[in-house]
Design brief:
The complex is a heterodimer.
Chain A (H helix, E strand, L loop, with lengths): L13 E2 L4 E13 L38 H13 L7 E2 L2 E4 L9 E4 L9 E7 L2 E14 L3 E3 L8 E3 L6 E7 L6 H18 L11 E11 L9 E6 L2 H20 L7 E6 L4 E7 L9 E2 L6 E2 L2 H10 L4 H12 L3 H8 L2 H10 L5 H19 L10 H12 L5 H13 L4 H8 L7 H14 L1 H8 L5 H12 L6 H11 L2
Parallel strand pairs in A: 12-13
Antiparallel strand pairs in A: 1-2, 2-10, 2-11, 3-16, 4-5, 4-15, 6-7, 7-10, 8-9, 11-12, 13-14
Helix pairs in contact in A: 1-4, 2-3, 5-6, 7-9, 9-10, 12-14, 12-15, 14-15
Chain B lengths: L8 H9 L5 H13 L7 E4 L1 H14 L10 E5 L26 H8 L3 E6 L33 H8 L6 E5 L5 H7 L2 E4 L19 E6 L2 H11 L29 E5 L9 H16 L3 E5 L7 H16 L17 H12 L2 H14 L5 H21 L5 E5 L15 H6 L5 H6 L3 E8 L5 E8 L4 H15 L11
Parallel strand pairs in B: 2-3, 7-8, 7-9
Antiparallel strand pairs in B: 1-3, 4-6, 5-6, 5-10, 9-11, 10-11
Helix pairs in contact in B: 2-3, 5-6, 7-15, 9-11, 9-12
Classes of the chains: A alpha+beta, B alpha/beta.
Chain lengths: ~500, ~475
């Protein structure tokens, strides 16, 4: 895809003392599959349960226990693959990744190494400087480990196996990202796609979405990639951005000092806002991957893929195109409205009976402001789509002015009443009776004869003053359009 | 009164059904034998009190249902048994009490049998002489200081010495057939996927299969029928109909074709074994079978292939024994030290050797040269058999290249020990069914077995051929209970 550059040009570079550097970023996102049970056992995946209450014989790796693949998790990852416009591999293999750790009961993690379930795909980002395609390298399924708890006892480490065996999709991007902003857009888009598909809830606070971030730098104009560092297990977009900024600068400083970047795994210290070395490449584990002999290779029927294709909902990109085309809203507006399925649902509910443009403005303006302030999602909006559409219709039919509408909206936030009822009970209906309005205007003009004279002598700015007076006198209810017309004719 | 412990399980089942004797009488006879068998060291855990209760309950209920009504059975200590200690012959599981029952043992109990005890075996089934068990060597009832074979040595010894009417073992490279051959008993390794592996302590997942050890071919058919079947909890078990192997058992094998693979004529093989093989061929001819010389050209690579694949899988399968969750735990100042101490103290030498080999062959830089190549050779070995089975219905070979050897004889020479499995490992690599049946004695009066290898899921064919051989061999297990 051609990058369409607008007046907003891409400008994320690290300006070193000697050179201008480009930052190359690739992400390995670990997304928890939305599934009631684990990847190879029937234990519950519910978040926040008491430690070790959601652990089966398989999850705790008792002797003789065998994994059995959870078909639903397979379908969820195929759906995700389809959502990433990726190739679904009809043949894939589960491998064992061998390493010892207290919260890894089997002594190996079942993962997919050489033959993942999903191959190459893409994610489209809408950046201020145009759309950008980020390549997806692969998506594979793997088990999560348990959790080691080091701070409960001075002598011992405790292990909670509730997470052990939960299905994760590791989604590996190509090194196509170039700035923290693009990472932000990428993670949000990925999350949005998976939420549309209901394959991952994307809840970063609960650890449903985390990422390993690969960062390297190169001089602008260079083609060869620099040596990369991998920052492990970052669990918020903000931390990803901070880690990238720190890491890119660190690498630039090293290189400009004539030193080399070591290929290594690093950790982001969120308190110090720094990355620090975890292990060098030479210290990397030898995971001794080999196909898990307890599981047969996964063979996927074409009919299953076709069936799942049919169940796919409209995804953000398609929805955005449709919104722009059918509802005649801007790319910017469409982008925001489709960013979360709940927002687009809300919008489409409102415009069933209300003006499309006004609805977009109200949702993105007043409603978002309220949601942000209350820190709640649109699904829990205090104003129902139905009532918002009625409010918008009151504006469209000129029964109330925009200003009054805001007043009514404030009341609706507190109590989700029908705005018509609010308007009636508070007497806020717009005054559109020309005779009534003329009366008020005449009164105002009579009171302000000096100003009328000044106006007529050319001080046209005073027109606004008259309007203001009329509105004030009508309690804001006067139809501004009519007031305008009548005033103009009276002041001729 | 007749000694019930000499009976086959077919006869015991009939006797119990006809009320010739009770389950309690049967159980008591075996307990009596087992209680006087400490020199053999076949049992790790004795469940005699519980078995007696089960027998009495069975007699009280007076309903003979299932294939194994009222039959006490001791099993190899690789099968997890609910609330009964399960050790896999290892110190690291010395204190392990499963809260679950393996699918295969559970099937036996559903057919009316009950647990008599847990039988000794090589540690994690790694061994061919039952000298690697944490619980000590098992002795072959055919002679003091003679090994019973391995790894199902406790099972074979207990069966031959009438300490259990039948038993089940596991076979990864010959662990059922070799001890059967060494103790004059019948041992069958079913087709890979025929029996569930769920609840069996894993050694090498792509090779492990549970199977019966019995006194007769008829018993073998009966026990195989009871323990076979698809298990949704084991992804590698195969959803295929289980035959009634007993009802279909027939010695009518006329016009079947049996292959004799030339590659199994190895150097240094005792002439007695060669003679026995010829005797088997003659008996089969007598039964109307057509004999055909065949070639399995990759046979010589089977043993090295096996000793890459099996340790590789074992090194990973045994990683779970880390002292964190269950089993033996040694102290350590930190996690790594705890691991090191636990596994150093918990595992024996042979297990450590195989973990090291397995870790090595899977290491980056060596994976392609060893593990990957071994997988390719494994495929060639399987193709050898596939081709052979286009022309023959089964294959006849000796079970082992020697009879039972003396304790300590091969203990410090692992390669010579491994060579004892030379005729049995190709079958595991190819996932085929194979049976060892007692066929005669060597000059030291130690038993020898012949092996029949069948097509996948055609256990019936090798059972029928075995029955025909059994009739003609007229093998007698001449054991004096010298250990009492």
């Amino acid at each position: 895809m051609v990058e369409i550059m607008t007046e907003n040009k891409f400008d994320y570079f690290i300006n070193g003392e000697k050179n201008k550097w480009e930052v190359i970023i690739g992400l390995e996102v670990h997304a928890q599959v939305l599934s009631k049970s684990k990847l190879f056992s029937s234990s519950s995946t519910k978040f926040g349960a008491e430690p070790n209450t959601q652990v089966s014989l398989v999850d705790s790796a008792l002797p003789g226990m065998l994994p059995v693949i959870n078909q639903f998790c397979i379908e969820q990852s195929i759906k995700t693959g389809l959502g990433l416009k990726a190739k679904i591999n009809r043949h894939s293999v589960f491998d064992r990744k061998n390493y010892f750790y207290a919260d890894l009961p089997q002594g190996y993690q079942i993962s997919q190494y050489k033959n993942p379930i999903v191959g190459e795909g893409e994610v489209i980002l809408d950046m201020p400087y145009g759309t950008k395609k980020i390549g997806i390298e692969r998506l594979h399924l793997e088990q999560d480990a348990g959790k080691s708890i080091h701070d409960m006892d001075p002598e011992n480490t405790f292990v909670d196996l509730n997470r052990s065996g939960i299905a994760l999709m590791e989604i590996v991007s190509k090194p196509d990202l170039r700035s923290p902003e693009e990472v932000n857009a990428y993670v949000k888009k990925l999350r949005s796609i998976m939420r549309y598909l209901a394959t991952c809830d994307g809840n970063m606070q609960e650890g449903s979405l985390r990422a390993d971030v690969n960062v390297s730098v190169r001089k602008v104009g260079d083609i060869k990639y620099g040596t990369r560092c991998e920052i492990k297990n970052v669990n918020s977009i903000k931390f990803m951005q901070m880690a990238i900024e720190y890491e890119a600068k660190r690498q630039v400083e090293l290189l400009e000092d004539g030193k080399a970047v070591d290929q290594e795994t690093r950790l982001f210290d969120t308190k110090k806002n720094k990355t620090k070395s975890m292990r060098l490449k030479e210290e990397a584990h030898d995971y001794r991957y080999f196909p898990d002999p307890d599981l047969l290779p996964l063979e996927i029927d074409k009919s299953l893929i076709d069936k799942l294709k049919k169940t796919l909902p409209e995804l953000p990109d398609e929805k955005k195109d449709r919104f722009m085309k059918i509802y005649n809203i801007s790319a910017y507006e469409a982008n925001i409205l489709v960013s979360e399925k709940e927002i687009s649902d809300y919008y489409e509910e409102v415009i069933k009976q209300a003006d499309k443009k006004l609805a977009a403005n109200w949702i993105m303006g007043d409603l978002f402001a309220v949601l942000n302030k209350k820190n709640i999602s649109i699904a829990r909006s205090p104003v129902s789509p139905k009532n918002l559409s009625i409010l918008i219709n009151l504006i469209s039919s000129e029964e109330i002015s925009g200003r009054i509408a805001k007043e009514v909206f404030e009341i609706m936030i507190e109590k989700d009443d029908n705005p018509k009822v609010i308007v009636e009970s508070k007497g806020l209906r717009q005054q559109s009776d020309p005779i009534e309005l003329e009366k008020i205007i005449t009164e105002i003009l009579t009171k302000n004869k000096d100003k009328v004279a000044q106006y007529k002598n050319g001080k046209e700015k005073l027109f606004g003053f008259f309007i203001g007076q009329v509105m004030k006198s009508s309690g804001g209810r006067a139809n501004p359009k009519l007031v305008n017309e009548i005033l103009k004719s009276k002041l001729k | 009164m007749t000694d019930l412990t000499n009976f086959s399980i077919v006869d015991l089942v009939n006797g119990i059904k006809n009320k010739d004797f009770t389950s309690e009488e049967v159980t008591k006879s075996f307990i009596k034998n087992a209680e006087n068998s400490d020199k053999l060291n076949a049992y790790i855990t004795k469940c005699f009190d519980e078995a007696l209760v089960s027998a009495k309950n069975f007699d009280k209920k007076n309903i003979s249902k299932g294939l194994l009504p009222g039959i006490p059975i001791a099993v190899k200590d690789m099968f997890c048994t609910k609330d009964v200690k399960t050790t896999a012959g290892s110190k690291i599981l010395n204190n392990f009490l499963p809260t679950y029952e393996s699918t295969v043992t559970n099937k036996l109990w559903l057919e009316g049998a009950f647990l008599l005890g847990k039988l000794n075996c090589d540690e994690f089934a790694m061994g061919s002489s039952n000298e690697t068990s944490f619980f000590g060597n098992v002795t072959n009832p055919f002679g003091d200081k003679i090994v019973p074979g391995g790894s199902s040595g406790g099972s074979a010894s207990a069966l031959a010495a009438n300490l259990t009417p039948a038993t089940i073992g596991t076979d990864t490279g010959g662990s059922i057939r070799q001890p059967a051959s060494f103790t004059g008993t019948v041992g069958l390794k079913p087709t890979y996927g025929r029996c569930s592996r769920w609840g069996i302590v894993a050694f090498a997942s792509s090779l492990d299969q549970a199977g019966p050890l019995t006194k007769t071919v008829e018993d073998c058919a009966l026990l195989l029928h009871a323990m076979s079947g698809y298990d949704p909890k084991d992804s590698t078990s195969v959803n295929i109909k289980v035959n009634d192997f007993s009802s279909n058992l027939t010695e009518k094998v006329k016009d079947l074709t049996i292959g004799i693979p030339k590659e199994y004529r190895v150097e240094d093989m005792p002439t007695e074994i060669d003679k026995l093989w010829k005797k088997g061929i003659d008996f089969l001819k007598d039964a109307g079978v057509v004999i055909k010389d065949i070639s399995l050209p990759h046979t010589m690579y089977a043993l090295p292939t096996y000793y890459i694949v099996a340790p590789a899988e074992a090194s990973s399968n045994l990683a779970r024994y880390d002292g964190v969750k269950y089993g033996h735990r040694s102290k350590g100042n930190n996690l790594i030290e705890m691991y090191e101490n636990t596994r150093s103290e918990g595992f024996g030498d042979e297990v450590k050797r195989r973990i090291l080999i397995g870790t090595y062959v899977l290491s980056s830089g060596y994976y392609d040269a060893y593990y990957l190549k071994a997988q390719k050779v494994r495929k060639l070995i399987k193709e050898d058999f596939d081709k052979a089975f286009n022309n023959v219905d089964a294959i006849l070979t000796p079970s082992t290249p020697s009879s039972a050897f003396k304790m300590g004889e091969k203990k410090d020479d692992p390669v010579s020990m491994y060579l004892n499995d030379i005729f049995t490992v190709p079958v595991n690599l190819a996932g085929l069914p194979a049976i060892s049946i007692p066929s005669g004695y060597d000059k030291n009066n130690l038993p020898l077995g012949l092996q029949l290898i069948g097509r996948p899921f055609d256990e019936q064919m090798i059972l029928n051929l075995s029955l025909a051989l059994q009739k003609r061999m007229n093998f007698k297990r001449n054991i004096k209970a010298w250990w009492k």
